[in-house]
Design goal:
Length: about 525
């Protein structure tokens, strides 16, 4: 950071300090249009730009300056052309100042997801936590927004008032620096994720998701197993999810050519996972991974791939000896099961959902009746006993029913990925930088946590006809308009306020303006 001795500065009490003036290379027909004290003119590529600055006391005891942002430019012999929203001391209320802000949807997220912000503040400095949460809120409310567009959304929203006393900025460079720090200086990120794990239910689903990468110089982007579907290189996002609370717990980007099973050792080592029940799909199945899932008090539930001898031997011995009822929402079904002990600590449990089996048989028969290609009576006869069948291996002490129910709850991570893909639209990333892409995976984690808090809020309505998107649309109608010394709430419906009250959101009627 550079500081220079200069004249026409003010001390911390606002008193003018006169110092010898250095010779200026700026011509007089430019200098005379300098708009305020505590501004300086810089010639850049033949153009004259005006920057504000403030005084600072140097270690030597002398007063110096710290240059702030560019506030406009000067055209020789014509005058000063301010940037939009520049407010001079002579005219504190600029004619171009924004006086109506987007309020409702941003304030809704702020109140509903307050626990996410508090978690961030527990591991990051307040300004960095605020910046992360503000960026994540913009992305959640508006779906995918390019980094260089975030500032415009932020400036036109209530967030710019709510975080006005925070020193962070929201321009492309500032957000790029934030992402770089999140990907390069990872101690706070890891501590944040460890803290979430400590306060979780300890039943964690892990899964990967391939995202198209449009970057040509990214160290993570490679041709992967979805190259034909994506038509481009990919990066692999790996996320952890609490199957009981629905909260995303951690996220990390891996090379596009990595399969899911090859990422486990790095993840377990990074987060030092202890006493966790891993609930994963068959793509993670390997003997080294099962050992990792069994260390440090950990355990696992995982489907057995059908090509393994243990699968074939178990299915050859299947004779359903027990049953239980599985309830999901208002529906319930009867499930038969068979257990086989593989080792002293490992069991394979075969569960058959009778209702699901019948539905699959019916749907298959309907496809045969409709003449769909590939559906034949012979194949139905061959496969009908396997419909609705789950072959799960575990080393946990859970009963057959508990193993089945825990695995069924794993589908929540699939729902999370559906949100990331379809609603949040994180489908095409173009980061030319390893660190920024890793940093963005953390932002995606926070966005997912905001989404989960909104799900919990929506469930308080006990009304399936009102979705999260409906709540955001209703909230978006509310604006904040500057009237004198206050921002005043406008465009409000009493009917909407009654709905918001049920989910714990109470809009502010007025906010003090600075």
């Amino acid at each position: 950071m550079w500081y220079n001795d200069f004249n026409d500065i003010t001390d911390m009490n606002g008193r003018m300090i006169t110092m010898p003036r250095k010779p200026s290379s700026i011509p007089e027909n430019v200098q005379k249009y300098r708009p305020d004290i505590c501004t300086e003119i810089k010639e850049i590529s033949g153009h004259y730009y005006v920057y504000s600055y403030h005084s600072i006391k140097l270690p030597s005891g002398n007063w110096g300056k710290k240059t702030d942002k560019c506030i406009g430019k000067i055209v020789p012999d014509q005058g000063f052309i301010p940037n939009k929203n520049y407010i001079s001391k002579d005219n504190p209320e600029s004619d171009d100042e924004i006086t109506v802000l987007e309020y409702g949807q941003y304030a809704l997220v702020e109140q509903v997801a307050v626990n996410v912000r508090r978690d961030l503040e527990g591991c990051f400095p307040l300004d960095r936590a605020g910046q992360i949460f503000a960026v994540s809120t913009v992305l959640f409310v508006n779906n995918f927004v390019h980094v260089d567009q975030i500032h415009d959304f932020y400036e036109q929203s209530w967030l710019s008032v709510n975080y006005r006393n925070y020193p962070f900025k929201m321009g492309k460079t500032a957000i790029g620096t934030m992402l770089d720090n999140l990907g390069r200086r990872t101690i706070r990120v890891v501590n944040y994720e460890k803290n979430l794990l400590v306060h979780s239910s300890s039943e964690v689903a892990i899964d990967g998701h391939a995202i198209r990468s449009c970057s040509e110089e990214n160290d993570l982007a490679e041709a992967g197993y979805k190259f034909c579907a994506l038509g481009e290189d990919q990066v692999n996002l790996l996320m952890g999810y609490d199957v009981n609370t629905g909260k995303p717990l951690f996220a990390r980007m891996f090379r596009g050519s990595c399969n899911d099973k090859s990422t486990v050792d790095d993840l377990v080592d990074l987060l030092q996972l202890n006493n966790i029940l891993f609930i994963v799909d068959r793509g993670f199945y390997s003997e080294p991974n099962l050992k990792l899932f069994s260390q440090n008090g950990n355990s696992y539930i995982i489907p057995v791939p059908s090509h393994l001898n243990s699968f074939k031997e178990t299915m050859a011995q299947v004779k359903y000896t027990g049953s239980f009822y599985y309830r999901s929402g208002k529906k319930h079904s009867r499930v038969q099961y068979f257990e086989r002990k593989v080792t002293d600590t490992r069991r394979i449990i075969v569960s058959r959902d009778i209702d699901e089996n019948e539905k699959c048989r019916f749907n298959y028969q309907r496809c045969i009746d409709q003449g769909k290609k590939g559906y034949t009576p012979e194949k139905l006869e061959e496969q009908k006993e396997f419909f609705g069948v789950y072959v799960l291996e575990t080393n946990s002490s859970k009963s057959a029913q508990e193993v089945f129910e825990s695995y069924k709850r794993r589908r929540g991570i699939e729902t999370l990925y559906q949100y990331i893909k379809n609603r949040a639209d994180f489908n095409n990333l173009k980061f030319e930088d390893f660190y920024k892409e890793q940093g963005f995976s953390f932002i995606m984690l926070v966005v997912g946590q905001i989404h989960q808090e909104m799900i919990k809020a929506q469930q308080k309505l006990h009304d399936n006809t009102t979705s999260i998107n409906d709540l955001l649309l209703k909230a978006r109608a509310m604006k904040m308009e500057k009237r004198g010394d206050f921002w005043m709430l406008k465009n409000v419906k009493k009917k909407d306020l009654a709905i918001f009250e049920k989910i714990g959101f109470k809009p502010q009627e007025r906010i003090q303006a600075q």
